[in-house]
Specification:
The protein has 228 residues and is an alpha+beta fold. It has helices at 30-39, 58-69, 88-95, 129-138, 159-169, 190-195, 215-225, and strands spanning 18-19, 26-27, 47-48, 54-55, 101-103, 110-112, 117-118, 125-126, 147-148, 155-156, 203-204, 211-212. It has three domains: 12-69, no CATH class; 117-195, no CATH class; 199-228, Double Stranded RNA Binding Domain (2-Layer Sandwich). Helices cover 30% and strands 11% of the residues. A two-stranded antiparallel ribbon has the order 1-2. A two-stranded antiparallel ribbon has the order 3-4. Strands 5-6 form a two-stranded antiparallel sheet. It is found in: Nucleus.
Length: 228
């Protein structure tokens, strides 16, 4: 009708084509893209937003809705600055910037560490993990592993000790990762998954000096490295 103004959807500019980023094929609707991703690309969880963004994890989709589109979700929120995060792990890392404030993964209560983060060499106490790391690297010339339990604010100087601590004290339910809350299907893979959150890379390639968190990743690398 002449003179009638078209009402535009905020999603319209993105919905002309739903594209698979892996193979490059485009689809006319979200249902076709989801079917392709599940049957061809073998993705178990697929969620397509109205704006065209594709997600393979519930927490990233939930975070996208909250931050990009203002949809109220159950994303963890910083009680100090109001920022949203995908999970409690990322929230707790952020809370380190607010004078060592933390959220308990079990009860959801916010608390501030009273003892701070202590250097095991000089016993000096720091309010932020980054300051402690800087002190250890510069002042104490410590070059090995430094890891922080983001649940209870305890510092570890061994990835193995950190993993044992998480499993012993912060395991809310069987085979559920205390860091990212992912449920590991097989118990034999649980410790391997927890280790994936560590920064330590103990498995080193003797040819190119590349390092890996897991032994099987090193083996896969060696097969390629030996061919070169």
């Amino acid at each position: 009708m002449k003179g009638r103004r078209e009402v535009r959807s905020p999603f319209k500019q993105y919905c002309a084509s739903f594209q698979c980023k892996k193979c490059g094929n485009s689809f006319s609707n979200a249902e076709s893209l989801v079917k392709h991703l599940r049957e061809v690309e073998k993705k178990r969880y697929v969620k397509v937003c109205n704006c065209g963004e594709v997600f393979f994890l519930m927490r990233t989709y939930r975070y996208h809705l909250q931050v990009k589109h203002g949809v109220v979700t159950s994303c963890p929120q910083c009680s100090i600055c109001g920022s949203y995060f995908q999970d409690n792990y990322n929230l707790n890392r952020h809370m380190m910037t607010h004078r060592s404030a933390f959220m308990c993964n079990n009860c959801g209560e916010m608390y501030v560490s009273s003892c701070g983060l202590q250097c095991r060499f000089c016993k000096r106490v720091f309010e932020q993990f980054g300051k402690l790391v800087q002190h250890l690297r510069v002042d104490e010339n410590y070059i090995d592993v430094i890891e922080l339990c983001t649940i209870c604010c305890e510092v570890f100087y061994s990835s193995q000790a950190h993993q044992d601590h998480l499993i012993r004290f912060h395991l809310a339910s069987k085979n559920q990762c205390p860091i990212c809350s992912v449920v590991v299907k097989h118990a034999c893979n649980f410790r391997r998954h927890v280790a994936s959150h560590s920064m330590e890379r103990p498995f080193v390639c003797s040819h190119c000096k590349s390092s890996f968190k897991r032994k099987d990743h090193l083996k896969d690398h060696l097969l390629k490295c030996n061919r070169q």
